[in-house]
Design a protein that fits this description.
3 copies of one chain form a homotrimer. Chain A is mainly α. Chain A is 78% helix and 0% strand.
C-alpha cells in the first residue's frame, strides 16, 4: 500500500511536468500552465472517481496530490533545459506513471466492488484520461488517438495484473511485474515504431 | 420496460457505429476509435447520471452496454462498404437512437424525483451529449451546434412525451408515438433542409 | 445569504449573455447558442458540485438558475446592438460575476467540510470553468489560458476572502470587499494591460 501510494504521487508529479511542457509549447501563461498541469495529473483519477461515485474525489481530501503538482512547477522551470535534453527521462517517468495509475485505478475500482471488466476499464481510464483532457484544453486531437501504442499498453497490463492477482501472486510483486510489462511494451513500441492498425 | 431496455441497447449499438465512422474519417487507430465509440454511445447517459447523482453510472454495473459497443467494432469493419452505402440506414438508426435515449433519459430523471422541466432537460442531455463529446474529442465544433434540427427534435419529443403521459396514455404506446414523432421531425427536417435560425 | 443568492443569479444571467455572444460570433443556431449559454452559466458550479459530491447539482433542484438563463436569450437578441456598444458594461458584469461565483463556490465548499486550500480551489473552479467549457465547445483554446489576469484575480480574491473571514469580519462586508477587490484587479489589469509571464 505504501509503495503504491508513493509511486502514485510520483506519477502525479511526472504527469504534471508533461502538462507544463505542452502548455509552454502553446505559449500559455504561468497560471494557465498550472491548470493544465493539474488536470493532466489528476484528470484520470477524477473521472474514475466520478464514474464509480467515489466523491468527493481523492485529491480534494488528500493534500499530497496538490503538493506534488505545485512542486512540479518550479522543478520544470528550473530544470527546463535539462528536461528538454532529458526527453528520454520524461518518457521513462511518463511510462512508469501510466503503469502505476493503471494499477491504482484498478485497485480502487475493485475496492468499490466493480466487476473485473469494469475494473480494468477504470484502470485504463485512470491512466489515460488526464492526457486526453490536457490535449483537449490545448485544442489538439488527443495524442492517444493517433500515436504509437499507449492506452493499449495499459489495457494489456491491466489484464496481466488481473490474471496474476487471480492466481494468488503476492501483490507487491504483481505491482512490479505489471509496471515492468507496461513499461516494456511502451519502450518496444517506440523503439520499433509499432502502432495499432488504423481503422478503415 | 423490456421494450425500452432492448431499444436502449440498440441505440447504444448504433451510436457506437456513428463514433467509429467519424474516428475512421479522422484516421484514428483501432483503439482510439473504440474509445470514441464508447463515449459516443454512453456519454449522454453518463453525464445525465453524474448530474442527478445516480452513481456508479449505469454502464459500470450493467455489462450489456459494453457488449453492445464491442459488437459494433467488428460489425462496422466487416460491413464497412455496406454501411457507407447505407448512409440512409445509419441516419434512420441514429434518429431512432436519439428518440429512445430521450425517452429513457426522461424516465430515469423522473424516477429520481426531478421536476418535469429538468426531466425534459435530462432527456435531451441523454440523447445529444454523446455526440457532443465525440465531436470535441475529434476536435470539431459539435455538429448539433451547426446543423439541421437535431436536439430540437429531442426537445419537442420530450415535451410531447411528458404531455401524453400526464394525459394518462399507455406507456408503451407513448414510447412508440414519441419515437415516431422525433423520427418524423428529423426526416422532414432533412428532406426539406429545415434549420433553426442562427442567432444574431 | 439573500444578498449572495441574488448576486449569484445575476452572475448566472450575465455569464449566459457572454455565452450567447460567443455563439453568435461562431454562427450557431438559436438552440446551440442556448446550450452554450447554459454551460457557460452553470458549468463552473456543476463541476464544483460533482467534485465535492454535492449531487444532484444545484441547478437541477433549483429552477431559478434555468429561468435566469432563459431570460438571457431574448434580452441578448433584443438589446443586441446595445450590448455590443456596451462592451464595457458586459465586462463590468462579467467581472462582478466571477467575483460572486468565487465567493459562493468557497462558501459551498466550506459547508461541505473542505479544507481551506481546497475551498479556495473550488472558488476558482466555480468562477472560471464555465468559460473554459464554453471555449472548448466553440473549438477555441480557453481564453483564461492566454489572456490577461482573470483566474488569478479569483485566486487572489479567494485568499483575501478566506483571511478576512478568519479575522472574524462581518460576512456581508467581506462579500462586498472581496467582490470589489476582484473587480478592481480586473479593471487595473485591463487598463494597464497587465498579464502573467508566460511559462518558458
Amino acid at each position: 500500500m505504501n509503495l503504491l501510494y508513493a509511486l502514485d504521487l510520483i506519477g502525479t508529479f511526472v504527469f504534471a511536468i508533461s502538462g507544463l511542457r505542452l502548455a509552454a509549447k502553446k505559449e500559455m501563461d504561468l497560471f494557465g500552465a498550472s491548470v493544465i498541469a493539474c488536470v493532466t495529473a489528476v484528470g484520470g483519477g477524477t473521472v474514475r472517481d466520478l464514474l464509480i461515485g467515489a466523491t468527493p474525489v481523492a485529491w480534494i481530501t488528500n493534500v499530497h496530490y496538490g503538493v506534488a503538482i505545485i512542486l512540479a512547477v518550479p522543478v520544470t522551470i528550473i530544470f527546463r533545459k535539462y528536461i528538454v535534453e532529458l526527453k528520454r527521462t520524461i518518457f521513462i517517468f511518463d511510462s512508469i506513471g501510466i503503469a502505476l495509475f493503471t494499477i491504482s485505478g484498478m485497485e480502487k475500482a475493485f475496492s468499490y466492488g466493480l466487476s473485473p471488466s469494469m475494473a480494468i476499464s477504470m484502470g485504463v481510464v485512470s491512466a489515460v484520461i488526464g492526457g486526453v483532457i490536457r490535449d483537449i484544453l490545448c485544442n489538439e486531437i488527443p495524442l492517444i488517438f493517433r500515436k504509437e501504442i499507449y492506452a493499449t499498453a495499459c489495457l494489456i497490463g491491466a489484464l496481466f495484473f488481473f490474471v496474476l492477482s487471480k492466481m494468488g501472486l503476492n501483490t507487491d510483486l504483481n505491482y512490479i511485474l505489471t509496471t515492468s510489462l507496461i513499461f516494456s511494451i511502451r519502450v518496444i513500441a517506440i523503439k520499433y515504431n509499432l502502432s495499432i492498425p488504423k481503422i478503415r
